[in-house]
């Protein structure tokens, strides 16, 4: 199935480039006359109708070379972790959820917590350095699987985080993610952000967990770009708001305020801090290192310009929604 | 040697310049504080020194080694961040020892360094505890301990105290200053908080929009700000600014605002004449503590007296902040003796200490004095 998909993609690219009919034949089939053929793998050849110029042949060789480099191998042999890595790549290529091989299912006899680490594109040497730090940090119990050069999946046994104590699981997962960020930055010297997902008990659930981690990463970057750690159980409001179409968002924003206060970066930061501190003026001023009168002045200015008083619950809700929605289409 | 040279450093993100021509030498063992509002480029500068951000242009030299392409882990730098986290599955000893273990230090050397750092930070009794059993201040000390044991050339600290409560922050501020005196290492410290900057730094770099506004000692920054931004940013409550014109009157230079006319002392007037400022529009600056209500002061400085209406009086215990209207279109703040009684809504007579005033060019906003 996978091989057919790969062949079909290659054939499509070649036909578009050459403007000629291209086919994949099994090796045992005799090539039709007046057709050029090229070996694809041990069992397949590529045939092109209509005779080829030297430049066209060179182009086909170039395409084939690239195709051979990029094609995904079937996960049918090797170490379990290497098989897991290949299987995850396969699920991405196919876009579906193929059943995991037995060796991958075996890996999930223990529940494992998936962490998505997003880092700069790493060379092989730097990736090895990262693996060494993570492995040592988690006492050889974590698996680090590179998803691509800028994303790695870390799978950690749930028992490593909690031991016998399973109270307040979310807090434990968050603290582990924060520790992971700290150790990667300080010991591996790589800038990293981490998203954490609750434990996964079966291998076939992993691709969906990765998709969720990536979605949360995207939402987190939009709404809380400075945070080093995101969790899949935060952003419920943001996820809900993402389903609203742009026209309705614009209508809501226009209804809330005639002056677009959400475009004033300083005011946005002030309001975010004020909402986070439960509308507490003194605490917000302290957190923002500003005098409380400066904060009051900013809130008062907002009230005069938009009619919204951030100290009133009803208006605070509107302000929070406006801040969130305005980021969606920036 | 841990002297740092940042030579014309730039950081560009697409079309945005986050750090613009940062050019500074940091002396060995210096405690340098980068301060400025959000988005001024101070953290980006620190992250470029750490190697977590690429330098777009310019050179970073530590000691005598060009560091632009040296990986962060090879820069001999230790970092403590605002969002620092302890390693939750390790006890305090293991937290501090982990980095050394990873670098394959011998066990007895690790033990020596951990115990020494624990002693400096007064956390010897906590070495067997897990992070969840520690208070906020204790956690902060462990995070510092983790950096100290590495004995780096340079410490980089990015708002390390901002997650602590006010009391603990004051305490840790002193601890870090003491630590610097004891370790005699270069520290580069980033903060929003001008009080931290003033109390901790040997030198302060005030930044705005990616550009250094002034780099100087805390005293000089406070008393001789280079421009309106620095004057307004450093000091709490911040400096009062009044717009007006400098005029020649009866052989003296006066500052004339919409509701204020005060005589500039002769020494300062001479500077203004030399710089051809007389007749020009200027911004006049006065710090709240340089506005006085003592009768003796009022009697001795009749040329700088004025009356204003008390709008708000904030009693801070040891002092009182008066917010005054009627001098300019914004309220002017005065810091006066808390024991003096003031009634809100009443007129009050005050005087400016004219030897402490600042004058800024209105066009460039740079300081004349």
UniProtKB/TrEMBL annotation, chain B:
Which intervals hold domain ABC transporter?
A: 4-234
Key words of the record: ATP-binding, Nucleotide-binding, Transport
Q: Does the keyword Transport apply?
A: yes
Q: Which PROSITE patterns match?
A: ABC_TRANSPORTER_1, ABC_TRANSPORTER_2
Q: Does the keyword Transcription apply?
A: no
Q: Which GO terms describe its molecular function?
A: ATP binding
Gene3D superfamilies recorded: 2.40.50.100, Nucleic acid-binding proteins, P-loop containing nucleotide triphosphate hydrolases
SUPFAM superfamilies listed in its UniProt record = MOP-like, P-loop containing nucleoside triphosphate hydrolases
The record's listing under InterPro entries reads:
AAA+_ATPase, ABC_transporter-like_ATP-bd, ABC_transporter-like_CS, ABC_transpr_MalK-like, ABC_transpr_MalK/UgpC-like, Mo/tungstate-bd_C_term_dom, NA-bd_OB-fold, OB_MalK-like
The domain of life is Bacteria
One Pfam family per UniProt: ABC_tran
What PANTHER family does the database record attribute to this sequence? MALTODEXTRIN IMPORT ATP-BINDING PROTEIN MSMX, OSMOPROTECTIVE COMPOUNDS UPTAKE ATP-BINDING PROTEIN GGTA
Q: What is this protein called?
A: Sugar ABC transporter ATP-binding protein
Q: Which organism is it from?
A: Kroppenstedtia guangzhouensis
């Amino acid at each position: 199935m996978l091989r057919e998909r790969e062949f079909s993609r290659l054939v499509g690219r070649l036909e578009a480039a050459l403007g000629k009919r291209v086919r994949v034949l099994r090796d045992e089939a005799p090539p039709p006359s007046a057709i050029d053929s090229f070996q694809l793998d041990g069992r397949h050849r590529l045939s092109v109708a209509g005779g080829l110029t030297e430049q066209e042949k060179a182009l086909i060789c170039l395409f084939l070379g690239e195709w051979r480099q990029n094609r995904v191998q079937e996960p049918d042999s090797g170490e379990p972790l290497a098989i897991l890595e290949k299987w995850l790549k396969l699920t991405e290529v196919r876009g579906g959820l193929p059943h995991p091989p037995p060796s991958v299912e075996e890996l999930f006899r223990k529940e494992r917590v998936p962490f998505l680490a997003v880092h700069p594109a790493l060379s092989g040497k730097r990736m090895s350095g990262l693996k060494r730090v993570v492995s040592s940090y988690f006492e050889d119990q974590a698996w680090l699987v590179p998803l691509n050069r800028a994303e790695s999946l870390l799978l950690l046994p749930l028992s490593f985080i909690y031991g016998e104590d399973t109270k307040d699981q979310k807090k434990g997962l968050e603290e582990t993610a924060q520790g992971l960020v700290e150790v990667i930055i300080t010991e591996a010297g790589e800038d990293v952000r981490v998203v954490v997902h609750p434990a996964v008990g079966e291998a076939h659930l992993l691709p969906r967990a990765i998709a969720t981690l990536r979605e949360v990463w995207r939402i987190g970057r939009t709404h809380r770009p400075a945070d080093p750690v995101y969790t899949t159980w935060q952003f419920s409001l943001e996820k809900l708001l993402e389903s609203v179409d742009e026209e309705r968002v614009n209508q809501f924003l226009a209804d809330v305020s005639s002056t677009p206060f959400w475009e004033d970066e300083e005011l946005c930061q002030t309001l975010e801090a004020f909402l986070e501190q439960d509308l507490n003026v003194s605490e917000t001023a302290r957190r923002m290192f500003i005098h409380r009168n400066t904060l009051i002045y900013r809130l008062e200015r907002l009230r005069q310009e938009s009619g919204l008083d951030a100290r009133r619950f009803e208006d605070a809700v509107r302000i929070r929604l406006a801040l969130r929605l305005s980021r969606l289409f920036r | 040697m841990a002297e740092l040279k940042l030579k014309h450093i730039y950081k560009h993100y697409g079309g945005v310049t986050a750090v613009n021509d940062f050019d500074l030498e940091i002396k060995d063992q210096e405690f340098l504080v980068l301060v400025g509002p959000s988005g001024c480029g101070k953290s980006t500068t620190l992250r470029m020194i750490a190697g977590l951000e690429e330098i777009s242009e310019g050179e970073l030299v530590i000691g005598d080694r060009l560091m632009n392409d040296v990986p962060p882990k090879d820069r001999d730098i230790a970092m403590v961040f605002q969002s620092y986290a302890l390693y939750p599955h390790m006890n305090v000893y293991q937290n501090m020892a982990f980095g050394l273990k990873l670098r394959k230090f011998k066990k007895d050397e690790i033990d020596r360094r951990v115990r020494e750092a624990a002693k400096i930070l007064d956390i010897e009794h906590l070495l067997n505890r897990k992070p969840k059993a520690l208070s906020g201040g204790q956690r902060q000390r462990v995070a510092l301990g983790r950096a100290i044991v590495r004995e780096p050339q340079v410490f980089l600290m990015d708002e390390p105290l901002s997650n602590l409560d006010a009391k603990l922050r004051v305490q840790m501020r002193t601890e870090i200053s003491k630590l610097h005196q004891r370790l005699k290492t270069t520290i580069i410290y980033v903060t929003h908080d001008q009080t931290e900057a003033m109390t901790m730094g040997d030198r302060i770099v005030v930044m705005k929009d990616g550009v250094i506004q002034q780099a100087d000692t805390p005293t000089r920054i406070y008393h001789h700000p280079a421009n309106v931004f620095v004057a307004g940013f450093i000091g709490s409550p911040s400096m009062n600014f009044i717009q007006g014109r400098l005029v020649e009157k009866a052989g003296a230079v006066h500052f004339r605002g919409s509701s204020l006319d005060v005589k500039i002392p002769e020494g300062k007037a001479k500077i203004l004449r030399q710089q051809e400022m007389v007749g020009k529009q200027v911004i006049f600056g006065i710090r709240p503590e340089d506005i006085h209500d003592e009768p003796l002061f009022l009697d001795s400085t009749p040329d700088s007296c004025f009356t204003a209406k008390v709008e708000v009086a904030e009693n801070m215990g040891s002092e009182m902040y008066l917010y005054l209207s009627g001098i300019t279109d914004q309220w002017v703040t005065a810091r006066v003796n808390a024991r003096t009684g003031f009634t809100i809504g009443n007129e009050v007579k005050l005087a400016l200490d004219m030897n402490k005033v600042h004058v800024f060019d209105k066009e460039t906003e740079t300081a004349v004095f």
